[in-house]
Specification:
The chain has 2 domains: about 190 residues, Jelly Rolls; about 325 residues, Neuraminidase (6 Propeller), CATH 2.120.10. The model has no long low-confidence stretch (mean pLDDT about 90). Strands 23, 24, 25, 26, 27, 28, 29, 30 and 31 form a 9-stranded mixed sheet that branches. Strands 1, 3, 4, 6, 11, 12, 13 and 16 form an 8-stranded antiparallel sheet that branches. Strands 2, 5, 7, 8, 9, 10, 14 and 15 form an 8-stranded antiparallel sheet that branches. Strand 38 and strand 39 form a beta hairpin. The chain has about 525 residues and is mainly beta.
Length: about 525
C-alpha cells in the first residue's frame, strides 16, 4: 500500500511537471547540431567547433566570445531558460587563483548563460566544481564529467535553479541586478575579460509561460541609506566587526593588515550612531587588539584578542582587555584557552585558534564566547587538509580562563545568535564549496544539529535578532548581502544585495534603534549604511 501511494504521488508530480512544460512557449532555441544562426548573433570571434554531442566553445586569455539573441518579454510572463552543457578547462581571473575567485558580474564569466527581461538580468555560471548564479547562489557539483541539464525559472525578481529535473535553489531575489539595457536578451558562451572558458553546449533555449504559481511576496521591506565612508589616511581598514555597547556607544574592530595570521587590528569607537569613528589609543595597529567585545553587568567592557598564542608548555593564551564604561581607559591581562587536544594547535605557523565576534553574558555571571580552530590534519589517502571547526567557550573568572563548552560544527568564521533561553542558531562561513552552513541548538548550545547547507554564501556571516522579532543575517562575497528570517532561521525567504562593489566583502550589522540596522562593509573601502527593516503585512 505504501509503495503504491509513493508511486502514485511520484507519477502525479511527474504529470504536473510535464503539464507545466507543455505550457511553455519556446521563443529561442539552439540544438547544438550546427553553428548558431539567426536570431543568434556572434559577439566577439567565437572559437566554435561542432562535435557529435554539441558545440564546443573555447576562448583564449586575450578575447572572449559568446552568442546572443534578442527576444520580446511579456510583463507577467514566467521565463524558462534551459541549457544542456558540460564544462572543460576553466581558469580564474587572476594568475594562480582558482576559477571561483572571479566576480562574474564584474569580471565576466568563462562559461555562462545570461538572460535579461529588460528590467533585470542574471543567469547561470559554470565552474568545474560548482554551478552558481552571477551573484550569491551556489550549487556544489561536478559540471565537467558529463553533461547536465540546467533550468532557470524566473518570476519577477526570483530565479529558481534546477539541475537534471531537481530544484537546487529557491532563488528568492536572485534575479535582482538592474539590466544593462532595456532590450531583453539571452546569451551563452564566455563573457570573461581575463578568465578562460571551455564548454560543450548541446542545447540552449528560452521560453515563457503563464506563472505556474503565485510568486511569494517578500514580507520584508528595506530602506537603505546612501553609503557613508569611514575614512582613515594612515592605514587601510577592512573586515569590520561591530558591537553595540548600549549607552550610546558603538565599538568596531577592524583588520589593518594583509589578511594574514597575527595581522594587526584596531579598535574604533563611535558615540554618534556610527557617523564618525576614532581609534582608541593603545588598541590600534596591534595584534593584541580585542575582537569580541561585551559590556559586563557592572558597566565595564571586556574584550578578547582575536589571536591566540601557543606556549612552549603546550598551553594556549590570549589577551583580555578590560575597558571602563566609556571605553577611554583599559588594562591588559593574559587569559588561558582550554580546548580538547584534537583542536589544540600543534604546528606553528598554520594551526591557530581564533576568537570570533559573538560573546554574551550568562545568567550565572559568566560569559560564553565563540571561537574557531584551524588545524592541519592528514588526509585519508595522503596529503594534508586544513580542518576548521567552530566552538563555544565559557569563562567564570572574568576572562582569565576560557574552557571548552561545545563544538558547533565544521567550518570557520561562525556567527551565533541566541533566540531564547534554550534555542540558538549558528551560520558558518562556506569554505571550498562556497555555501554557508547553518546549525541549531535546542539546549542552550550544549549540542548542535547536523549542518544544513544554505543556497547562499560565502564569508563572515553576522546574526542579529532584531527587536521586531526578525532575524537578520549579513554575509559577503561575491557581493555584500542581507537576508532575513521570520521563523528563527528555519527559512530565509527575504534576500537583498546591499552593494555589489568588490573588496573583501566582509560585513557586520547591529540594531542601533528599533527596526534600524547599521550595516558596515569594506567594499571597496570601509563604509556604512543604515537599513530600516519593516515587516510587511
Amino acid at each position: 500500500m505504501k509503495t503504491t501511494l509513493i508511486l502514485a504521488t511520484f507519477l502525479s508530480t511527474l504529470g504536473q511537471l510535464h503539464a507545466a512544460d507543455d505550457a511553455i512557449h519556446w521563443l529561442i532555441q539552439y540544438d547544438g547540431k550546427s553553428l548558431p544562426s539567426a536570431p543568434w548573433t556572434a559577439i566577439g570571434n567565437p572559437n566554435a567547433k561542432l562535435k557529435a554531442d554539441g558545440l564546443r566553445l573555447i576562448d583564449g586569455d586575450k578575447e572572449f566570445a559568446h552568442y546572443r539573441a534578442s527576444w520580446k518579454a511579456g510583463a507577467d510572463d514566467e521565463i524558462i531558460v534551459e541549457a544542456t552543457v558540460k564544462t572543460g578547462a576553466i581558469t580564474g581571473s587572476q594568475p594562480k587563483k582558482p576559477a571561483t575567485s572571479l566576480w562574474p558580474w564584474r569580471d565576466g564569466a568563462p562559461a555562462m548563460v545570461q538572460v535579461s527581461d529588460g528590467r533585470h538580468q542574471d543567469g547561470l555560471v559554470l565552474f568545474p566544481a560548482q554551478a552558481t548564479s552571477f551573484t550569491d547562489r551556489f550549487i556544489p557539483m561536478d559540471t565537467s564529467s558529463k553533461s547536465h541539464t540546467y533550468r532557470l525559472i524566473i518570476h519577477g525578481t526570483d530565479m529558481q535553479m534546477w539541475v537534471d529535473g531537481v530544484k537546487k535553489v529557491n532563488g528568492q531575489g536572485a534575479f535582482w541586478k538592474p539590466a544593462d539595457s532595456p532590450e531583453p536578451f539571452i546569451q551563452f558562451g564566455s563573457s570573461a575579460k581575463t578568465a578562460t572558458g571551455d564548454a560543450l553546449w548541446s542545447s540552449v533555449k528560452l521560453g515563457v509561460r503563464k506563472a505556474t504559481a503565485a510568486s511569494a511576496k517578500d514580507r520584508i521591506k528595506l530602506a537603505v541609506s546612501e553609503p557613508l565612508l569611514i575614512p582613515r589616511e594612515d592605514v587601510k581598514q577592512t573586515r569590520p566587526y561591530l558591537y553595540d555597547m548600549d549607552q550610546g556607544l558603538l565599538l568596531m574592530s577592524v583588520a589593518q593588515g594583509p589578511d594574514a595570521l597575527y595581522e594587526p587590528y584596531g579598535l574604533l569607537k563611535s558615540t554618534d550612531a556610527g557617523k564618525t569613528w576614532s581609534p582608541i589609543p593603545g588598541l590600534d595597529q596591534s595584534d593584541t587588539t580585542p575582537l569580541p567585545m561585551l559590556r559586563r553587568p557592572d558597566g565595564s567592557i571586556l574584550g578578547v584578542s582575536r589571536w591566540t598564542w601557543s606556549q612552549p608548555d603546550g598551553t594556549l593564551t590570549a589577551k583580555t582587555v578590560h575597558l571602563d564604561a566609556a571605553a577611554t581607559h583599559f588594562r591588559l591581562s593574559d587569559s588561558r584557552i582550554v580546548l580538547p587536544k584534537q583542536f589544540m594547535p600543534e604546528k606553528p605557523g598554520g594551526d591557530v585558534v581564533v576568537c570570533e565576534r559573538h560573546i554574551w553574558n550568562d545568567t550565572d555571571g559568566g560569559m560564553t564566547m565563540v571561537v574557531w580552530s584551524r588545524k592541519l590534519t592528514n588526509r585519508i589517502g595522503g596529503g594534508n587538509i586544513t580542518e576548521r571547526m567552530s566552538h563555544l567557550m565559557r569563562s567564570t573568572d572574568e576572562g582569565k580562563t576560557w574552557t571548552y563548552f561545545s563544538t558547533i560544527g565544521p567550518g570557520g568564521e561562525p556567527a551565533v545568535c541566541r533566540l531564547s533561553d534554550t534555542e540558538q542558531t549558528a551560520v558558518i562561513r562556506g569554505d571550498r564549496d562556497s555555501q554557508m552552513k547553518q546549525m541549531f541548538s535546542h539546549d542552550a548550545g550544549q549540542t548542535w544539529s547536523q549542518p544544513i547547507r544554505l543556497e547562499v554564501g560565502k564569508v563572515l556571516p553576522d546574526l542579529v535578532l532584531m527587536s521586531n522579532g526578525i532575524l537578520a543575517c549579513s554575509y559577503g562575497r561575491p557581493a555584500s548581502c542581507l537576508m532575513f528570517s521570520l521563523d528563527g532561521g528555519k527559512t530565509w525567504p527575504s534576500h537583498h544585495v546591499i552593494s555589489d562593489k568588490v573588496g573583501f566583502n566582509y560585513t557586520s550589522i547591529r540594531e542601533i534603534s528599533p527596526g534600524r540596522l547599521l550595516y558596515i562593509h569594506d567594499a571597496p573601502k570601509l563604509n556604512a549604511v543604515t537599513v530600516d527593516v519593516q515587516r510587511v503585512k
